[in-house]
Amino acid sequence: MTSDSRFEPEELFWRARIFDSLSYPSVVIAPDKRLVGANKKFYDTYKLSSEDIIGKKCFQSFLYKDTPCDSKDCSISKVLENKAMHTYTVKHQYKWEERVFSPIFDDEGQVAFVIFSIRDITRTKSLENQLIGVKEFISRVIYSSASAIVAADRAGNIELMNSVAKELFGDYNGGEGKIKHTEQLYPPGKAKEIMKMLRNEKIGGKGKLLIPRTTIVNARGQEIEVEMSAAIIYDDTGEESATMAIYNDLKDKIKVERELKFTQKQLAQSEKMASLGQLAAGVAHEINNPLTGVLFYASLLLERQDLDEGAQEDLRYIVEDANRCKNIVKSLLVYSRSADSNKNIIQINEIVEQSLKLVRDQKKFRNIQIIRYLADEMMLINADTNKLNQVVINLIINAADAMKGSGKITLNTYKDKLHKKVFLEVKDTGEGILRENLSKIFDPFFTTKEVGKSTGLGLSIVYGIIEEHGGKISVKKTGVKGTSFILEFPLFIPEEEGLALCRPF
Ligand SMILES: Nc1ncnc2c1ncn2[C@@H]1O[C@H](COP(=O)(O)OP(=O)(O)O)[C@@H](O)[C@H]1O
Ligand SMILES: [Mg+2]
């Protein structure tokens, strides 16, 4: 016991009462495992008196045994050996207890006694379990999110990547764990820029950032377009403790946007063609009448015998040029669909063969190889043969022009029975179409050829005829290796065949 003279009466008072005032049950045990005292809380809790325990060994009182426990299982031995506190937790019926064994040292620093306290930690334990539950729930939310989520510490070291993030950044299977720092997620310098924006209150608010479209880099160094939102995570004191970002791959969105743009472009093109068609039809009609007059009176004049040779020659030029004009007017009327059409059900291959017969012997095709891959099946279309011949001829003349007289033209037909379509592809090995001209080639009078040599009406007439047949024409591919045009027509299905298809057996 401490000598009284060392303490003032007040201190003596509280020192004497401190043990009994402890709010958890405590017992003092001597090194020989003898119980030498217990506090009031202990006696109250376990309904015992000092006679029940004082002088008895701990294993007798607490474990009802006659022999001491093995020293490796004995907490008293541990405190004596390590001269330090020892604790463990046990579940005792519905309660969780923390059992604390603390040394009481003598003046030489040896363990004179051990205080054994029993603390009820049921509430702490239940809070701990709740916390674990919440943590598990949050982790499940993060890991089952359809968005990629990445979290990093203040220094940018990545601490969490959910499975979508691992997949997006390619940091899985072979690449497991390759990405360690946020700088690896972006093109050079971008991570710092993002952190700067995150801290700028004027962009997205304090510690928040939303970028509708930005670029990230995956483990293979490929750039990917994403939508991203990022946030700084603050601790209770308002200090930055971590950052997190959510990414959504824009691949599908971009694809839809591109398709929409393409459709809009096609719509704009057909609208333009329709208005040009009306204009052309109007002009053609207007010119047709005076032109007929010019031709009529010039022909009349030509019949006069009293004109000299020179005048007659001039008149022949007038008639010749007026006839050229008439042909152009005729072409314009075809383009604007005003010319009559005469449709029949015909095999598309037959149209290709007929057209080739018409051009085959022309000088232009002498050094050109024409290859046909015509599918050997029924590919009927409802078509005006003459007009479609004109289409094929126009396309192969253009192809020959683009190849400067020598090369290879491939004509390919096939069908898509499911979608009821018939296709004709015309491919050449020519110089290709410049990107900036692609949107103009179907315009009337657009030509890149020598003035006077070509009218620039060919493809616009082709476009008109294909539209008239309920089909489509487009440039499938073009470049220095050549160009291929693809034509699409509705497949004609004879009635019996249609019925046969509908029959159940
Ligand atoms: N197969 C092709 N290869 C390269 N350019 C082509 C091809 N077909 C058409 N073109 C381009 O489209 C333009 C318009 O064609 P078209 O309407 O037939 O008029 P033209 O043949 O009288 O020039 C051509 O001048 C040419 O620049
Ligand atoms: Mg042409």
Write structural notes for this entry.
The protein has 505 residues and is of the alpha+beta class. It has four domains: 4-120, 2-Layer Sandwich (Beta-Lactamase); 145-249, Beta-Lactamase (2-Layer Sandwich); 255-335, Up-down Bundle (Methane Monooxygenase Hydroxylase, Chain G, domain 1), CATH 1.20.58; 344-497, Histidine kinase-like ATPase, C-terminal domain (Heat Shock Protein 90, 2-Layer Sandwich). 41% of the residues lie in helices and 26% in strands. The protein is built from 14 helices and 17 strands. The protein has helices at 9-21, 40-46, 50-53, 58-63, 75-82, 122-143, 163-168, 190-199, 251-303, 309-335, 348-360, 385-402, 458-468, 495-502, and strands at 26-29, 35-38, 86-92, 95-105, 111-120, 148-153, 158-161, 208-217, 223-234, 240-249, 344-347, 367-374, 380-383, 406-416, 421-427, 472-479, 482-490. The strands form four sheets. Strands 2-1-5-4-3 form a five-stranded antiparallel β-sheet, with helices on both faces. A hairpin with a 5-residue loop joins strand 1 and strand 2 (35-38). Helix 9 packs antiparallel against helix 10 and helix 11 crosses helix 12. It is rod-shaped. The structure holds adenosine-5'-diphosphate and magnesium ion (MG). Residues 394, 397-398, 454, 458 line the site of magnesium ion.
Secondary-structure blueprint:
Elements: H1 9-21, E1 26-29, E2 35-38, H2 40-46, H3 50-53, H4 58-63, H5 75-82, E3 86-92, E4 95-105, E5 111-120, H6 122-143, E6 148-153, E7 158-161, H7 163-168, H8 190-199, E8 208-217, E9 223-234, E10 240-249, H9 251-303, H10 309-335, E11 344-347, H11 348-360, E12 367-374, E13 380-383, H12 385-402, E14 406-416, E15 421-427, H13 458-468, E16 472-479, E17 482-490, H14 495-502
Parallel strand pairs: 12-14
Antiparallel strand pairs: 1-2, 1-5, 3-4, 4-5, 6-7, 6-10, 8-9, 9-10, 11-13, 14-15, 15-17, 16-17
Helix pairs in contact: 9-10, 10-13, 11-12, 12-13
Bound molecules: adenosine-5'-diphosphate and magnesium ion.
